[in-house]
Amino acid sequence: MSSKENAIEVEGLVVHRGGRPVLGSITFSVQRGSVTGLLGPSGSGKTTLMRSIVGVQKIRSGRITVLGQPAGSAPLRNSVGYMTQAPSVYGDLTVRENARYFGSLHGASHWAADRAVADVGLGEAAGQVVNTLSGGQRARASLACALLARPSVLVLDEPTVGQDPVLRAELWQRFHDLADEGVTLLVSSHVMDEAARCDRLLLIRDGSLIADDSPEGVRRASGTQDLDEAFLRLVVESRGKGRA
Fold this sequence. Notes:
Radius of gyration: 18 Å
Strand content: 25-35%
Structural class: alpha/beta
Helix content: 25-40%
CATH class of the largest domain: Alpha Beta
CATH topology of the largest domain: Rossmann fold
CATH architecture of the largest domain: 3-Layer(aba) Sandwich
Low-confidence stretches: none
Number of strands: 10
Number of helices: 7
Strand order of the largest sheet: 6-7-8-3-9-10
Mean pLDDT: 90
Shape: globular
C-alpha cells in the first residue's frame, strides 16, 4: 500500500522507559479513513505506542510519520486529536463549558460543542460539573472535546472503558461514521470483544506486534472464529517463535 493511502506509518519503532525496553522494533501502517483497533492486555505497550504516534513520547530509534509529516511536528497540531486514558478535562467546569472552551480553541461554534456533547451521550449531563461525574462519563466528556478539533487522525486510548454495552455500541458507530467522513481512527482496548468492531487489528503483547490483519484474517490465521481464543493462540505462537 502506498504512503499516500496511509495516514500513519511506523517503521522499526523502539522505545525504552526507565532503562527497560517497552516497544521493540514495531512496524505497521494505518490506512486513511479506517478504524484500526490496537488491542492487548494492560501493560503491553499500547499507551506508549499511541504517545509515540502523537509525538509526546521520546523514542530510542525508528521512524513515525503521520499524514506524511514526522510525528509531533508543528504542521500536525490541528490535524491530530488525542484522547488520553485519564480524562483530560477541567474538573471545576461543566461538561458544556469544557466542550465550548475546547471548541473555541479550534473555531467550533457553541452549537457544534453542544452537538459533540450529545453525540457521546452526555446531553442530559451537559450542565453537570465534571468532578461530579462518574469515571465513564468523564471519559465521554474528554471524547467530546477531542472530537471538536475535527482532526484528520484521531487517537483514542481506551475510550469505552467503564461504558455500558449500549453506549459502547453507540460510540463504535460514531467512530465508523467519522471514518466514513475520512477521519482515521486508532482505538486502543484491552477488551477483545471490541476487536470485531474494527476494520483492522494490531495485536500487541509485551511490546511486540504479534498480528496486523483484519478481524477475519486474524480468525483465519489462528484457526478459530473466537477472537479471544485467536489472541491466545497467537500469543502461544509468538512465544514459540521467540524460542526458535
